[in-house]
Amino acid sequence: MRSNYLDELNDIQRQAVTNTSGPVMVIAGPGSGKTRVLTYRIAHLIEKGVDPFRILSLTFTNKAAKEMRERIEHVIGGEARNVWMGTFHSIFARILRQEATKIGYPSNFTIYDSSDSKNVVKQIVKELELNDKLYKPSTVFNRISAAKNNLIGPQKYREDKYLVSDDSQSGRPKIAEIYALYAKKCFQSGAMDFDDLLFKMYELLSTHPEVLHKYQHKFNYILVDEYQDTNFAQYLITKRLAAVHENITVVGDDAQSIYSFRGADIQNILNFEKDYPDMRTFKLEQNYRSTTHIVEAANQIIALNKNQLPKTIWTDRQGGDKIKVVKAVSDNEEGRIVADTIFEYQMRLHLRSDDFAILYRTNAQSRSFEEALRRQNIPYKVFGGLSFYQRKEIKDLLAYLKLTVNHNDEEALRRIINYPTRGIGDTTLDRATVLASERGTNLWSILSTIQFQPDFNARAKNLIEEFVMMIKSFATMLQTMNAYDLASHIAKHTGIMKELYTDKTVEGISRYENIQELLNGIKEFSESDEIAEGETVSDRSLGTYLQDIMLLTDTESDKDDTNRVSLMSIHSAKGLEFECVFAVGLEEGLFPNQMSVNSREELEEERRLYYVAVTRAKSHLFLTYALQRYRFGNLIYSEPSRFIEELDEKNLEFIGHKVRRAEPTSGPDTPWERSGTRTTKETPGKSLYERPGAAQRQATPNFTPAAHTPSADFKADDPKTIQAGMEVEHEKFGIGKVVSLEGDGNNRIATLFFAGIGQKRIMLKYAKVRIVSGGAE
DNA sequence: GATATGTTTTTTTTT
DNA sequence: AAAACATATC
């Protein structure tokens, strides 16, 4: 245990860490050391003798949970792994795994992701012979999901006048019925969807007082991160769990509430005081992350919102770069400019690739940036979007594994009963489906007793029996083999391996590799003996593995993903920080998004999202927009976002296009003006503003990525005048000596030697180097 | 019942 | 533009 950790905190932070008992609310502005407070608070509790097993720490994302665990481990060591720490979903899944049988589920229940859920809905709409144009899976599912997040079950839904009349007004009166069937089907399949992990957790606690009692007493201290993002279910569960000890700490920032579409209710944090009148509040208002221009802009943005807790975020990182507003002609040019700028900044300021992030409103925007970065040979990593576990080949193999563990899993069954093709087609399956619903049972019990069912021809019966036998034989092996051996056996035996191996197209090869990677992942899981579970011995069964990975967004294999530019949605960037941030696609209709400009509440949430994007940046922030881009395959014209206008020009610098070729034509920063009215379509054309040449830029006084501070009169010399043997001053590395030179003109590269740092190869075009001696001044 | 070809829809954000 | 979906053909 590091003993001096309290010294690393400011006054308020320290109070927030050391006031350990009773309800505590920490309102934490962006970059105010929120995670630090949370982790040190946990560390402090453990140091004061609290058993790590009795601390429950809930986060929203795996990323946040992982980071927190690592940081606590850093402060207090190995004991950190005993803290119950994870996402709401994963912690509740873990508890449900243990208690499932009490609410009629098998402990190896399957978890359905949203595409599984939508398939179930689709199936029901088909069975009820409803209009599938009206009852779209996503629409219906969102309705069901919202109900669950508000702890409304099928019965309550049917009785809720408001909900029912809402549905009939939108022409979908059957939603209540679909919901009931959906719930029944999931139950019969031994499956829970994401929302069930909350909903069933609540059900468990309310119907089983002894279970509630057990966990209420077990968790002596409860901490919730990003409390502004909790929905009603999460709110009520934590409230009940905390009811005995009332040692509940919530940390959050109402200004960063961006998940209302998932049922998050900002009132949960605004009403914390009502729930716990004797609570204490700590407001962290000092931002340690960003420079003044960025913090001022952020304050400006959020001031336009009505509904919020008052606070003043400030920084002492004076000065720094202004926020650069960049106009591009098209989405592709936007990509190019960003990639070029990243290259330039890497050269000029010696930033690493992982100092950069490109943040967008919708995942579909990543394409143009990926292309441009690839062309520049800049390594990058795309977060979100289609995750590893959503790929077809992965889902196929996983479906076999799921079905082996849980025969009742109908989604898994439907997915692979005829893959690879074994002659069991739609006709047969439809017949079995009808039979199952007539008998009020599930598909598997029809199939596993197929020889006793009429209505099937001999061929179909035999094929089905063969399939059932195969799955059963896999299930037997569950007892004798470890997860990895079984998974490879299944992959081979079912012919999946062979089918992918014979496919020699590029996609085929990558699919084969993905299967290999999945198998490796399973191997790693089954061999790791890390005990991270609570009182139970860690469970390395295939069932646990399957539940775990359903809650992962991605493989999160940190083998090769260090030092890359991050591409992600603004939503997934919450909680992160980068030296240099590009907030891209600032166009009307895209950001703020078309879907979110119809009410004040929606627009305010978009603005909070904008606030999150802006406050990710430590030193450099770019806001970019494109005048035209492709959407659904056709070209659309857009206007700069109103969000740009909402900022104060004193924090901005406006930049047109043309980046690389820009030689010294620097003019004064020109105030930016909106072109015509909002409805005018702008013609793509020449930029009005040239970018100042890199070599002519003023050194930014307060930007100090490294120890060296350039002398006050620092002014870069013309690269052409640099000679080998000269003594020079570099903006970042200080005084050094020119060892050698290569290339000519614009692309001159110098090898410089700095005492204490070593040799650096530097492109003179981008670096600012001043001649100290050995040449003409 | 499987495969080839044409048609329609999709995009907001995530566990 | 790409993927999911529906219809035609073998």
Please, could you describe this protein's structure?
- This protein is α/β, with parallel strands linked by helices.
- Strands 9, 10, 11, 12, 13, 14, 15 and 16 form an 8-stranded mixed β-sheet that branches. A 6-stranded parallel β-sheet has the order 3-2-6-7-1-8. Strands 20-19-18-17-21 form a 5-stranded antiparallel β-sheet, with no helix packed on it.
- The chain is globular, with a radius of gyration of 29 Å.
- The chain is 42% helix and 15% strand.
- It binds a DNA duplex (15 and 10 nucleotides) through residues 60-62, 87-90, 113-114, 194-195, 197-198, 258-259, 261-262, 361-364, 367, 384, 421, 423, 425-427, 550-551, 553, 569-572, 590, 593-596, 605, 609, 630-634.
What is the fold's blueprint, element by element?
Elements: H1 11-18, E1 24-28, H2 34-47, E2 55-59, H3 62-76, E3 84-87, H4 88-99, E4 110-112, H5 114-127, H6 137-149, H7 154-159, H8 161-169, H9 175-188, E5 191-193, H10 194-207, H11 209-218, E6 221-224, H12 232-241, E7 248-252, H13 267-270, H14 272-275, E8 280-284, H15 292-303, E9 323-330, H16 331-349, E10 356-360, H17 366-375, E11 380-382, H18 392-405, H19 410-416, H20 426-439, H21 443-447, H22 458-480, H23 483-493, H24 496-502, H25 506-527, H26 542-550, E12 565-569, H27 570-573, E13 578-583, H28 600-614, E14 617-631, E15 634-637, H29 642-645, E16 652-655, E17 727-730, E18 734-742, E19 749-754, E20 758-763, E21 769-773
Parallel strand pairs: 1-7, 1-8, 2-3, 2-6, 4-5, 6-7, 9-14, 9-16, 10-12, 10-13, 11-12, 13-14
Antiparallel strand pairs: 14-15, 17-18, 17-21, 18-19, 19-20
Helix pairs in contact: 1-2, 2-3, 4-10, 5-6, 5-9, 10-11, 10-12, 15-28, 16-17, 18-19, 18-22, 23-25, 24-25
The structure holds a DNA duplex (15 and 10 nucleotides).
